Amino acid sequence: MEEQIDLVGKAFADHYYHLFDNDRPALSSLYKPSSMLTFESHKIQGVEDITAKLTSLPFDQCRHVISTIDSQPSFSGGIVVFISGSLQLPGEEHHLRFSQMFHLIPMLEGNFYVQNDIFRLNYG
Amino acid sequence: MEEQIDLVGKAFADHYYHLFDNDRPALSSLYKPSSMLTFESHKIQGVEDITAKLTSLPFDQCRHVISTIDSQPSFSGGIVVFISGSLQLPGEEHHLRFSQMFHLIPMLEGNFYVQNDIFRLNYG
Fold it and tell me: Please, one GO biological process term (chains A, B) (predicted)?
């Protein structure tokens, strides 16, 4: 069971950052109207507003490199996933370290959607 | 509602790190048998094992300084709290940056306990 949770968390993280780096508007498929995103303290709710935020960030191209993925089962069959990594922007010598957490909720079809999403750059 | 969530998240974080820095064994009061802790990729479950882990870390004294607290309501009345900050150890010149997430679940009395706890030092 524990291994299964780790596999789901890893598959989600790979899928999420692949979409982010290659087809950012398609991230909308991972959210629902109830979904919440806190991006660098900015609070956003719902598929449209979250997608608008993610696609209007001040960089077009980026690459996420994952350092760690920690997953745990949550109540009601969900999964919490905690990721650390770095964000590489074109022309930037230094990578930006980030941490991000997701609370994934199962859907009927066996997939998960993102109910909670909190993103922070790591300064210092 | 949103403000209330932020207040609960902040009150929890202040309480948690105050206990951690001043009376670490008392952290056991915040966990239940179902609680899960992932500490630097080490997975632990249950009040006794979590308390044993937290009280056997290789430092006796420490001070957590909180940089950011982000809170969101989760399903079933819970709250997800995402914290970044630094950990100061005696005699260490450099602070250790960390990120930590909690999934808090309400109890009948109006308090919350920690169902999910994931801690990571931020390297890089």
Answer: protein import into nucleus
Question: Does the beta-carbon distance from B103 to A103 stay under 8 Å?
Answer: yes
Report d(CA A71, CA B43) in Å as an integer: 10
Q: What is the pLDDT of residues B65-91, one digit of tens each?
A: 999 999 999 987 899 999 999 999 988
Q: Is B70 on the interface with A (CB under 8 A)?
A: yes
Give the range of the structural domain holding residue B70, as residue numbers without chain letter: 2-121
Q: How far is A30 from chain B (nearest CA, A)?
A: 17
Can you tell me which residue has the tokens 């490199």? A65
In this prediction the pTM is 0.95
Structural domain count, chain A: 1
Whether the Cβ atoms of residue B118 and residue B38 lie closer than 8 Å to each other: yes
A66 burial (CB, 10 Å; 0-12 / 13-18 / 19+) is: middle
Query: How many residue pairs from chains A and B have C-beta atoms closer than 8 A?
Result: 91
